[in-house]
Amino acid sequence: MQLLSLQAGRLSVDLAPEAGGSIARFAVLGEANSAGDVLRPATEAALASGTGKDSGCYPLVPFSNRIANGKLLFGGEQIDVPLNWPGVRHPMHGDGWSHAWTVGRHDGRSVELIYEHNGLSGWPFRYRARQTFVLDEAGLVTGMSIENLEDRDVPAGLGLHPYFPRDAETELTCRLRGVWETDAEVLPLKHVPVPPAWDFSSGRRVAGLGLDHCFDGWDGHATIAWPRRGMRLELSATEAFRHLVIYVPDGQTFFCIEPVSHANGAVGKTRLAAGATFAGEIAFRLSFS
After folding, report:
1. Own/partner pairs for 232-236, CB < 8 Å, 24+ apart?
2. Which one, of 140, 212, 162, lies nearest residue 183 by Cα?
């Protein structure tokens, strides 16, 4: 498995193009209290799978989350999307996470990865996706884009699925307007205002929340704090990403804050013109006390 390494100051990033164009590790080097992983590190077995689903972070392209029963309505047309995720009876998270990406360029502080989809399996439309990674002493900036290779309008979305380590004191701060209630299969049921129990505007610990929900009205800024480590991460996203999926599974040592371009199950409401490109950028900036 080929890993591409970036380093800037105390920060180190390993990328796995062949495992879904994923981030295998993002870490702070050294012996200080803050040293250690910024994202969940991928194991050797995870990388050997050739997918990014058990990595530190993987791309969501050309859609985020689930498409109920693989039936997508777009412009009055029903599009059938095949199952693609082990143990889930709805297609999930697109194609990018499960395919190898090619390296467009690579130097000590930046990488470009490319995935071109032929539309013959998985998502039924051709597209070209790109990811860029630029590391400096303050953090990592990830760019994402999808180019429609069809001669017709198609649905298309983007997202990023990072896994952050958590302990009992890990805190999240972000401003959100609404949330979709879900059924037992995490499919959206009803959009409601954010209830007090899920209000992160003043910051709150994530442990014990048991969330797996899509929020909207996000302003593109979130802060994660690890008080025991004296470390804070400022997550910011450009206008392309105004939905946020928050996943806090019970009994795990990680949680996910996923900037995405559309609500769960709503990629059919998007539209990318023939030959057009949709793009955005997500930044991970670290500070220490």
Report:
1. 232/286, 232/287, 232/288, 232/289, 233/38, 233/139, 233/164, 233/284, 233/285, 233/286, 234/139, 234/283, 234/284, 234/285, 234/286, 234/287, 235/259, 235/282, 235/283, 235/284, 235/285, 236/282, 236/283, 236/285
2. 212
Q: Where are the domains of the chain?
A: 4-168+220-288
**What is the band of 108 on the pLDDT scale with cuts at 50, 70, 90?**
confident
Q: Which amino acid is at 96?
A: G
Mean pLDDT of the chain: 97
Q: What pLDDT band is residue 32 in, cutting at 50, 70 and 90?
A: confident
For residue 99, the model assigns a pLDDT of 98
- DSSP β-ladder status, 110-117 and 127-136: antiparallel
Q: What is the DSSP letter of 20?
A: T
Alpha carbons 71 and 81: distance in angstroms, whole number? 6
**Exposed/middle/buried for 214, CB within 10 Å: 0-12, 13-18, 19+?**
buried
CB 115 within 8 A of CB 99: yes
DSSP 214-230: EEE---SEEEEEEGGGT
> In CATH, what number does 4-168+220-288 get?
2.70.98.10
Residue 33 has a pLDDT of 83
pLDDT in tens, 139-159: 999 999 999 999 999 999 999
Strands 127-136 and 139-148: antiparallel
Residue 209 has pLDDT above 90, yes or no: yes
Which residue is associated with the tokens 């990318």? 272
